[in-house]
Amino acid sequence: MSGLGRGAPLILLLAASAWGQSAQENLLKARGLVAKNKFAPALKLVQKANAEAGNDLETHLELLELAGVCHASLKKPAPAKAEFQKLLSLFPSWNLKSKLTPFVTRAWAEAKKTTEPLSIFPAAPETGTGAISEVAIDVRADPLKLAKTV
After folding, report:
1. Per-residue DSSP letters for the chain?
2. Is the distance from CB of 121 to CB of 140 less than 8 angstroms?
3. C-alpha to C-alpha distance for 18 and 45, rounded to whole angstroms
4. β-pairing, 119-122 with 137-141?
5. Residues 47-59: pLDDT tens digits?
6. How far is CA 103 from CA 61, 68, 93, 116, 121, in A?
7. pTM higher than 0.85, yes or no?
8. What is the pLDDT, as a whole number, of residue 23?
9. Which residues contact 139 (CB under 8 A, 6 or more apart)?
10. Residue 1: is its pLDDT beyond 70?
11. String of b and e for 108-141 (b: at least 16 CB within 10 Å)?
12. Which residues contact 97 (CB under 8 A, 6 or more apart)?
């Protein structure tokens, strides 16, 4: 996925350091397990990869998608919907990449109906002394409390 467009400011919200090798390995293994319909072990790997510091935005979004797919496939609609809501709040135009079952499509559709996109804009910088002394953002909508730090 390239050209995140609207989601580009979100890079400020997520850790942007180099992607850890173990997170990459866990994500790749989890994708393979999902392809084999082994959702419980895949979910554990997704959770482990998500706990790694330094995941970039695209990785974070893919982890949210896989977590939602795993939860839905394990017939846990509430956690699946919550993961999909986070994903859609961060990137409203995201399209699912994984193989879809009725459980997944149902959770995805429910999340799409009930998710408000994250809305962040740059705030006017503080220039009291003639130089910029402080910058900030204006979080206008964050119902899932996803914004962390700038």
Report:
1. ----GGGGGGGGTS--SPPPHHHHHHHHHHHHHHHTT-HHHHHHHHHHHHHSTT--HHHHHHHHHHHHHHHHHTT-HHHHHHHHHHHHHH-TT----SPP-HHHHHHHHHHHHH-PPPEEEEPPPB-TTSS--B--EEEEE-TT------
2. yes
3. 19
4. antiparallel
5. 999 988 888 889 9
6. 20, 10, 21, 22, 35
7. no
8. 81
9. 118, 119, 120, 147
10. no
11. bebbeeebebbebeeeeeeeeeeeeeeeeeebee
12. 62, 65
pLDDT confidence of 40, banded at 50, 70, 90?
A: very high
CA distances from 24 to 8, 31, 36 (A): 21, 11, 19
Q: CA quadruple 24, 29, 30, 34: dihedral positive or negative?
A: positive
Q: What are 138's two structure tokens?
A: 């204006």
Of 35, 23, 33, residue with least CA distance to 98: 35
The gap from C-alpha 100 to its chain's centroid, in whole angstroms, comes to 19
